Amino acid sequence: MVDIIPHHGLTQWRFSSLTSRLAGYSASAFLTADGILVDTGIPVAQAEFERLLDGSRIAGVMVTHHHEDHAGNVEQVARRGIPMCLAPETQRLVRTVEPIRAYRRVTWTSMTPLSSALVPFDPAPLELIAAPGHSADHHVAWDPHTRTLFSGDLFLGVQVRIAHHDEDPWTLIESLEAVAALEPTRMFCAHRGLVLEPAAALRAKAAWTRALIATISAHITRGATDAQILRTVMGGESLTGWASGGEYSRRNFIRAVRFRIATS
Predict the structure, then answer these.
(1) What is the pLDDT of residues 81-126, one digit of tens each?
(2) Which of 26, 29, 126, 235 has the fewest C-beta atoms lying within 10 Å of its C-beta?
């Protein structure tokens, strides 16, 4: 399923599946008036995505990172010969797609690896800016002329206490603050759509995340176990944490803090 949502100067393509809607999830791609598409939608929506490509003038595509809800149709783009802009590490990861767990297969399905030749794309005036933390290859797309930010998975919300097993909360804070310093006036989050007062929202998330790390660190220093911290600080495990078998969970956030303390 796809919802077409117009905004000033661009169009949001919001993709979902039956199972993702039941879980409260969708993932969006954004098409600017100049024909630049940011991200490629979810694999399960390939047919809808291809119909949108057929009916749109696409100058080129930018990909924020390798997760299948953002890069899910890169092979379909490349097969058409549409130019793409993506970081070298993102390109490596979408060419060597790793198996995903059942909860992601049910929600988005597995993506087709990129096997076709890639036509390079210069997205100017948009810029692809590194913003790691959510993943090592994560980038945002930035339009300095309109001060519009396409934030990929950088934001997601202020009070986010859930993490993938390979997320780095400290690097995420640095990215949030660096991108906030651009002073965007509009931000489009892949999972929340238009976010008002984006610079303030990014700084609020950075501050909240820093405070959460400090609280968890204090509990670890006093000898608390992960299970105790999960219960007293995080409010227990999330439904997503249970459904993902711990791959995307609150416990991962605690483990990241404990690992940093142990290795610093």
Answers:
(1) 999 999 999 999 999 988 767 667 667 788 899 999 999 999 999 9
(2) 235
Intervals of CATH 3.60.15.10 along the chain: 1-123
In terms of Cβ atoms closer than 10 Å to its own Cβ (0-12, 13-18, 19+), residue 102 is exposed
Could you tell me which residues come within 8 angstroms of residue 185 by beta carbon, excluding any fewer than 6 positions away?
146, 147, 148, 198
**pLDDT tens profile 10-29:** 999 999 877 777 777 889 99
CA 129 to CA 93: how far, in whole Å? 18
What CA–CA distances, in Å, run from 214 to 30, 208, 218, 228, 254? 36, 10, 6, 16, 11
183's CB contacts (< 8 A; 6+ apart) are 147, 199
Rounded distance between C-alpha atoms, residue 248 and residue 242, angstroms: 9
Q: Rounded to whole angstroms, how far apart are CA atoms 128 and 147?
A: 14
d(C-alpha 183, C-alpha 168), whole Å: 23
Query: 1-123 maps to which CATH number?
Result: 3.60.15.10
Q: What is the pLDDT of residues 199-227, one digit of tens each?
A: 999 999 999 999 999 999 999 999 999 99
For every residue of 137-195, DSSP letters joined together read T-EEEEETTTTEEEEETS-S-SS---EETT--HHHHHHHHHHHHTT--SEEEETTTEEE
